[in-house]
Design a protein that fits this description.
7 strands; about 270 residues; 3-stranded antiparallel sheet; mainly alpha; Serine Threonine Protein Phosphatase 5, Tetratricopeptide repeat; two-stranded parallel sheet
Length: about 270
């Protein structure tokens, strides 16, 4: 079983093995990585946090869990520009620094093992968490509570005044959605550091996870363009054209397709 197959096997378990799945993603980029070894080491973190939580009902332990993680120096990676290690789980566990989504995946794994109710929230620009039924969200980077006004302010800081808070921004995220977001993050981080092949690995995973949008196909098409693979580029541009609802983007895609050599004329 290769790392990609092992990743999907983790998602098919009940419940899904979130931390192991994230480690198999890292293993696609680092062939020497042994996820089982890191999972054994993770038990020590679980014991540290589980043994120091207050004596409260499980439904009230979400925020203490995140605060205890912060005490153990699991914090948001503030290094700019961000590097792929901010989203590669083995590096996040080693450095105890990562993107909010990576920290949230660790928190969700701990919550699952410690029987604490906690779910992910696919908030734009900054992944969040929620205790089911609570009237607030939780920041995985320290455990701060966020009420609706806090969420509006966070959205405004990320995107400006033009993006208004919607109910869909506060919806719970399924495991596939979380890992598709993680894969998009890694795709962008590898691309930003000129690792085209690494970005392509992530771009393929994004689409294999399902429900890829026009931007996902366009992102992979651009990678194929830089890697001089015109047949693959053409396929993804055609998919992006079918999925796009933007007339201007559709026009540009049509023009770009017109500049590619015909599929049957490409010589390898």
């Amino acid at each position: 079983m290769n790392p990609r197959q092992a990743f999907f096997a983790c998602l098919h378990r009940s419940p899904p093995a979130l931390l192991e799945a994230a480690l198999w993603i890292a293993a696609e980029h680092e062939p020497q990585l042994v996820p089982g070894q890191l999972l054994e080491e993770f038990k020590h973190i679980q014991q540290q946090i589980g043994g120091s939580l207050p004596s409260l009902p499980a439904s009230e332990l979400g925020q203490p869990l995140l605060r205890r993680m912060n005490d153990l120096e699991f914090q948001q990676d503030e290094y700019l520009p961000l590097r792929p290690q901010a989203a590669l789980m083995d590096k996040v566990l080693e450095r105890r620094r990562g993107q909010p989504l990576a920290l949230a995946l660790i928190a969700l794994e701990l919550a699952q093992r410690l029987h604490i109710p906690l779910v992910g929230v696919n908030f734009p620009g900054h992944f969040l968490l929620r205790v089911p039924g609570a009237d607030h969200l939780l920041d995985p980077c320290g455990g701060r509570r966020l009420y609706p006004n806090d969420c509006r302010e966070l959205l405004q800081r990320q995107y400006g005044d033009h993006l208004k808070l919607k109910a869909e921004h506060l919806a719970s995220a399924e495991p596939r959605q979380m890992f598709q977001r993680l894969s998009r993050n890694l795709r962008q981080l590898h691309l930003a550091h000129d690792d085209l092949l690494g970005a392509l690995v992530d771009a393929e995973r994004v689409l294999e996870l399902g429900d890829g949008n026009a931007a996902d196909y366009l992102a992979r098409a651009s990678l194929y363009q830089r890697l001089e693979c015109p047949n693959a580029e053409r396929f993804d541009l055609e998919r992006a054209l079918l999925l796009s609802e933007d007339p201007i983007q559709r026009l540009r895609l049509t023009e770009r397709l017109g500049h590619l050599p015909p599929a049957n004329k490409v010589v390898h």
